[in-house]
């Protein structure tokens, strides 16, 4: 048995000395001819050098046949982080060879989603680069050129089998309980038969010759050693009869000619590596390092899909998620820095990211945690940026007619702690502006408050408002409010919960909410600034006090008097 080193110093092929008929593969270090038919072949691949001459070059290669799934976004992110952490290049390539399903609209949406996430590419559509074009549909001439080279070397042959013949082969293999592989009929056909079919104009594909026996091994950067038995593969098609190249052939040629050093992709592509590795070797290209990332799973541990809810980046953007929160959360789906920290900016991720810390087990997509993380990022924004985001949301949804700086700033500060999504800001402000007094008063939860002489507190509150005393306090802001409420409590001989809960119910119409003083001051501002839309459902303080005066307190549950026991009978 001899050991032959191929074009890349990290690939070794072990072959028995039966070499017939020979064909030469370009790029062999020893210029040696290898046999098409081999009794035993073992290929072992591990990254010792890279095809880019030392520069890290990675690529994200989506198919523009739909929206950018969160799984694809995570793959793009891992490629981006690896490239940036290594001072390398992040390449974007569009795999649009599926002409029936690929659309420019889908491509544009994917590019927009990547840009929104902040994953800017160094080479690709809209940017250019020295290894373009970056759409597969524009690289057909290159695929044909390399296919012809393989045909000339004997690594590839013309196959004239019809679809009916191929189906029959599958049925025969199934009946014999054999792998459904191509029998190799045209791989050994005499030249005379080939010429006859060509003369008849019979359509043909290009098939790649696969050794009949042996094992191919690669060392995956995430999964370790992975191997395949070659006898389960069979000779495979690289060019269809219509002249269109097949996916695995395109990808190999693209990655090689674009000098990609590391292929970081989803684990569902792992089986493709077998065909691609054989094509790399046949063309004499050095192979990149491979890293296959685990799938993103739903809570039931099935593959995340539309039936589990939102799955595309665009959907999450429209729901009010921030790009920095999406990036942070996606990075944690299968990766961690070894600490308990879960909050990262994209720059921190670049600094800490390494492939060695990517987990090979499936990651569970937890929508509740993503929502929580979005809230953390939202509240960590600079105040002016957060104010701007909420203001734009409130204007776009019709709550605000115009921008009032003091009101928007106050509302943002008051409401931000309860807001996790940008879209939550609309509901939070509408809730503040509403006044569901009646439904609150008749609720079971409010019963103890009503029975604690709420009508008396209401009468005193109405008096304070009509005298102008409360209005003046609200005009003075927090200091004025605090001074007034302290004085109001003393006059009623109430403090703490027995004071603040009745005031909250009477002025906000609710039992719960953000800071009471801040809420009432903001309600007062909303009634005077003129920025609130009539469609916002806002109830002004004047309207609230009018409603308070109309409450029929006698109809509400009162404190039940204890039953009188007969004289001499203990109760």
UniProtKB/TrEMBL annotation:
It catalyses: tRNA(Glu) + L-glutamate + ATP = L-glutamyl-tRNA(Glu) + AMP + diphosphate. It is found in: Mitochondrion; Plastid, Chloroplast. One of its GO terms (molecular function) is ATP binding. Its EC number is 6.1.1.17. GO terms for biological process: glutamyl-tRNA aminoacylation. GO terms for cellular component: chloroplast; mitochondrion. The keyword Ligase applies. Keywords: Aminoacyl-tRNA synthetase, ATP-binding, Chloroplast, Ligase, Mitochondrion, Nucleotide-binding, Plastid, Protein biosynthesis, Transit peptide. InterPro entries: aa-tRNA-synth_I_cd-bd (IPR045462), aa-tRNA-synth_I_CS (IPR001412), Glu-tRNA-ligase_bac/mito (IPR004527), Glu/Gln-tRNA-synth_Ib_cat-dom (IPR020058), GluQ/Sye (IPR049940), GluRS_core (IPR033910). PROSITE patterns: AA_TRNA_LIGASE_I (PS00178). It holds the Pfam family Anticodon_2. Residues 404-525 form the Aminoacyl-tRNA synthetase class I anticodon-binding domain. Catalyzes the attachment of glutamate to tRNA(Glu) in a two-step reaction: glutamate is first activated by ATP to form Glu-AMP and then transferred to the acceptor end of tRNA(Glu). Belongs to the class-I aminoacyl-tRNA synthetase family. Glutamate--tRNA ligase type 1 subfamily. This is Glutamate--tRNA ligase, chloroplastic/mitochondrial. It comes from Zingiber officinale (Ginger).
């Amino acid at each position: 048995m001899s050991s032959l080193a191929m074009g890349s110093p990290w690939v070794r092929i072990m072959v028995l000395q039966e070499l017939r008929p020979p064909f030469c593969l370009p790029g062999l270090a020893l210029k040696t001819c290898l046999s098409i038919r081999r009794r035993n072949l073992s290929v072992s691949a591990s990254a010792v050098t890279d095809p880019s001459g030392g520069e890290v070059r990675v690529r994200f290669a989506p198919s523009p046949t739909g929206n950018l799934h969160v799984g694809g976004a995570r793959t793009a992110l891992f490629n981006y982080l690896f490239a940036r952490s290594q001072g390398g290049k992040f390449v974007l390539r569009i795999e649009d060879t599926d002409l029936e399903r690929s659309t420019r609209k889908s491509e544009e949406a994917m590019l927009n989603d990547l840009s929104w996430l902040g994953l800017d590419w160094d080479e690709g559509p809209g940017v250019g680069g020295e290894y373009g074009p970056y759409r597969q549909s524009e690289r057909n001439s290159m695929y044909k050129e390399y296919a012809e080279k393989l045909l000339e070397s004997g690594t590839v042959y013309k196959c004239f089998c019809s679809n009916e013949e191929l189906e029959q082969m599958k049925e025969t293999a199934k009946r014999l309980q054999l792998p459904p592989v191509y029998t190799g009929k045209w791989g050994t056909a005499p030249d005379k038969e080939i010429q006859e079919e060509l003369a008849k104009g019979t359509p043909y594909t290009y098939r790649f010759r696969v050794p009949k026996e042996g094992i191919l091994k690669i060392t995956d950067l995430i999964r370790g050693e992975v191997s395949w038995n070659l006898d389960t593969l069979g000779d495979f098609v690289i060019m269809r009869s219509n002249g269109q190249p097949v996916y695995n052939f395109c990808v190999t040629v693209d990655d090689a000619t674009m000098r990609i050093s590391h292929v970081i992709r989803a684990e569902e592509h792992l089986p493709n590596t077998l065909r691609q590795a054989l094509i790399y070797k046949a063309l004499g290209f050095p192979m990149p390092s491979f890293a296959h990332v685990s799938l993103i799973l739903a809570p039931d541990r099935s593959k995340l899909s539309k039936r589990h809810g939102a799955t595309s980046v665009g959907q999450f953007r429209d729901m009010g998620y921030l790009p920095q929160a999406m990036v942070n959360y996606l990075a944690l789906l299968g990766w961690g820095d070894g600490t308990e920290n879960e909050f990262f900016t994209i720059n921190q991720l670049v600094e800490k990211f390494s492939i060695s810390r990517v987990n090979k087990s499936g990651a569970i997509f937890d929508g509740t945690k993503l929502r929580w993380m979005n809230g953390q990022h939202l509240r960590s924004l600079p105040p002016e940026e957060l104010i701007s985001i909420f203001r734009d949301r409130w204007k776009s949804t019709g709550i605000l007619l115009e921008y009032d700086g003091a009101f928007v700033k106050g509302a943002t500060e008051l409401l931000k702690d309860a807001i996790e999504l940008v879209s939550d800001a609309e509901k939070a402000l509408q809730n503040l502006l509403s006044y569901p007094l009646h439904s609150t008063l008749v609720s079971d939860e409010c019963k103890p408050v009503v029975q604690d002489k709420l009508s008396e507190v209401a009468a005193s509150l109405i008096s304070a408002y009509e005298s102008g005393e409360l209005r003046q306090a609200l005009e003075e802001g927090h200091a004025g409010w605090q001074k007034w409420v302290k004085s109001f409590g003393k006059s009623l001989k109430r403090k703490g919960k027995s004071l603040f809960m009745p005031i909250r119910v009477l002025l906000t119409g609710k039992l719960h909410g953000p800071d009471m003083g801040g809420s009432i001051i903001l309600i007062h501002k909303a009634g005077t600034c003129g920025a609130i839309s009539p469609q916002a459902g806002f109830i002004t303080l004047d309207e609230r006090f009018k409603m308070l005066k109309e409450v029929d307190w006698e109809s509400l549950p009162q404190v039940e008097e204890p039953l009188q026991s007969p004289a001499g009978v203990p109760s």
